[in-house]
Design brief:
- The protein is α+β, with helices and mostly antiparallel strands.
- The chain folds into 4 domains: about 80 residues, no CATH class; about 90 residues, no CATH class; about 110 residues, no CATH class; about 140 residues, no CATH class.
- It contains 19 helices and 8 strands.
- Strands 5-6-7-8 form a 4-stranded mixed β-sheet, with helices on both faces.
- The chain is globular.
Length: about 450
């Protein structure tokens, strides 16, 4: 049902683009109350509101003006490529072809590959398909092969049956759009001195990815504030991160931090850490993410786990998708946060060390770097499962020690680091991390 609301909302905004979000939502609700179930039904909506009221609506009318022929044509053009879009079944992996032929559910890995191919083909028509366009394609897939792709709970179809396909498809497209025309490439130097592309990202999901220079500030004035923090760090070490004046300076120099991070070629994490040591503390990893996205990463994750964690666990208890799922559930772990992530990794057939590593309980950052073969991509390192002390590594080095020793604070720091430093999800755990993003 939520997908249909998005379709109708797009159609309404094509005809009445100046409507506020609240009025648009009220109009869509009224349309659905009147029995509108798709775009074709809009032609039966009868006029009863004078045209001049369209721009001054304070509440939804009892019925709606019939869309003009030009506005309907505009809506038709907007949706035309999706209506004629053919799902490229011939390009799909053998597992998908076999599943649809035999009316079976495809494996998670085959389904992920299908979503990747589908997103690639759709982006040939539109680099950033809307949710309603993704919905049209998702409904085609589910209506053609419901036994293989429809959302089911036991023997009953859930809603329209297409929500999971739609969600996977939209998340994949959003992830791919990190390489659009707004993107830049992070470059690092190898031991030989040559450069190679490290990853790419853009401003998707960020409200202040490349902000304007703050009022009454110059590059030089911000540089002086940066140097002041470097001096504080030199005398006080990492403990200075909690000082009120440091927090204020970190907020004020956000533009300069982004200026360095977004540079092309971009500096290594080691270079950023030298210039901005406090940026690699738990408090300021969170703070930078909040300035970047207008979201509190720790709070968002805590709320998501509270709302969905137990539901995910109960789902896998009722329908374990593989033996690893059964093994995790049999341990009877009390930490919902940790269990949910482990279950997702197992479901997507991704290894635990694609996200987490474990070190000796009393290890220092130097010990960890020498004892573990730390990968280039981000990892959360737990030093003791009993008290959940953690460290964060980026580009093969430990960059942060957690101030609050528990699983969810470490996961929040790990997730924020991808956004803060323009890093792509590692292939070893991409599906799980995309699920967390969603």
């Amino acid at each position: 049902m939520s997908g249909m609301k998005e379709v109708l909302k797009d159609a309404v905004l094509l005809v009445l683009p100046s409507l506020s979000p609240d009025v648009t939502n009220q109009l869509v609700e009224k349309l659905m109350d009147q029995g509108v179930e798709g775009l074709d039904d809009l032609v039966y909506v009868l006029p009863s509101v004078p045209p001049e009221t369209n721009t001054t609506l304070g509440s939804p009318p009892s019925s709606f003006s019939r869309p003009t022929s030009s506005s309907l044509a505009s809506a038709s053009v907007t949706h035309s490529w999706t209506e004629n879009f053919q799902v490229p079944w011939n390009l799909m992996p053998d597992g998908i072809k076999s599943a649809v032929e035999n009316g079976q559910r495809p494996s998670p890995s085959d389904r992920r590959q299908m979503i990747r191919i589908l997103a690639h083909e759709m982006r040939k028509h539109d680099k950033n398909p809307t949710r309603s366009q993704c919905l049209t394609v998702s409904r085609k897939i589910v209506s053609q092969y419901p036994k293989s792709f429809a959302d089911m709970l036991g023997d009953k179809q859930v809603g329209g049956g297409y929500e999971s396909v739609l969600s996977q498809l939209k998340v994949r497209i959003e992830h791919l759009n990190r390489t659009n025309t707004l993107s830049h490439h992070r470059i690092q130097r190898s031991d030989s001195g040559t450069t190679r592309k490290r990853s790419s990202t853009d401003s998707y999901g960020c409200t202040r990815w490349q902000p304007d220079l703050p009022p009454r500030e110059t590059y030089d004035s911000l540089e002086m504030k940066s140097q002041k923090m470097e001096e504080m760090h030199l005398h006080e070490g990492i403990s200075g991160a909690e000082r009120g004046d440091v927090c204020k300076l970190m907020e004020e120099t956000y533009w300069l931090q982004r200026h360095m991070i977004n540079a092309t070629p971009s500096p290594t994490i080691a270079d950023i850490k030298i210039k901005w040591p406090y940026l690699f503390t738990q408090r300021h990893i969170y703070g930078h993410f909040e300035q970047l996205t207008d979201k509190k990463v720790l709070r968002c994750l805590e709320l998501s786990i509270q709302e969905c964690g137990q539901i995910i666990i109960e789902f896998f208890k009722s329908k374990p998708t593989n033996d690893d799922i059964r093994s995790i559930l049999s341990r009877g772990e009390n930490d919902v946060d940790a269990m949910v992530i482990q279950l997702l990794l197992a479901h997507f057939k991704e290894k635990l060390d694609g996200v987490f590593l474990q070190a000796d309980e009393f290890a220092t950052p130097s010990d960890v770097q020498h004892s573990l073969n730390l990968p280039e991509s981000p990892r959360l390192i737990f030093l003791a499962l009993s008290n959940q002390r953690w460290m964060l590594s980026l580009e093969g080095q430990v960059v942060c020690e957690g101030a609050q020793p528990n699983f969810i604070t470490g996961l929040a720091a790990l997730f924020a680091s991808f956004y803060n430093f323009n890093l792509q999800y590692q292939e070893e755990a991409a599906c799980t991390l995309e699920f967390v993003q969603k």
